Amino acid sequence: MNSQREFPEWGKLYQEKDVESMPWFNPNLDADLDQALTKLNIHTGTVLDLGTGPGTQAMVLAERGFKVTASDLSDAAVSVAQGKAKEKGLDICFLQDDILNSHLADEFDFVFDRGCFHVLPPAERQHYLRVVYSLIKPKGYFFLKCFSSLEERESGPYRFTPEEITEIFSDRLQVLSVEQTVYQGTLNPPPPALFCIMQK
Length: 200
Ligand SMILES: C[S@@+](CC[C@H](N)C(=O)[O-])C[C@H]1O[C@@H](n2cnc3c(N)ncnc32)[C@H](O)[C@@H]1O
Prior knowledge:
Elements lengths: L9 H7 L14 H9 L6 E5 L5 H8 L3 E6 L2 H13 L5 E4 L11 E7 L10 H10 L1 E13 L10 E2 L1 H8 L4 E9 L9 E8 L1
Parallel strand pairs: 1-2, 1-4, 2-3, 4-5, 5-6
Antiparallel strand pairs: 5-8, 7-8
Helix pairs in contact: 1-4
The site of S-adenosylmethionine (SAM) has 19 residues, from α3.
């Protein structure tokens, strides 16, 4: 499950392809995040959309009144998303930032990672956790969507069991729930995924 996986050159990908064609493109708020925010009664606050890519999640969260910062490794992704947000008249702080060499300094009420963690090298997971932990306010939340070990397609991101997620993250965060779901995007059928709710 953890043998090395291959990923596109993120910078190049966003220069060459329309974001609408990317497997993870979802113009709506991720349904699992939407449900979690309702369940936890979270309607305002500061958010980091980590690995924002097309920026759709950042945009919907900003439309809902959250104060959003959105970061991605890819300059091209950030500039495309920034352009779209501007067209919509949304005030989002877009930043180019590598989460494994991050210059982010704020603490957020919640951090959302929809598809970044599962493309990072396994050896960097604890480093990633340390950085993400530092970006969450005390008692703040971390929402994570990643591929599930139930996904059978050969290529694509790393996959996880609920037990693996708990093992990786519970050193620093309280893992409140890890549920089997799907990753809504352009793939049919949508890949099996995990949606995880954690608290600092
Ligand atoms: C599967 S895409 C998901 C994009 C977006 N979250 C969404 O739901 O549409 C993964 C994103 O993570 C970004 N990424 C990959 N490695 C990263 C890193 N080290 N730091 C920050 N972003 C990274 C990629 O550029 C890509 O946009």
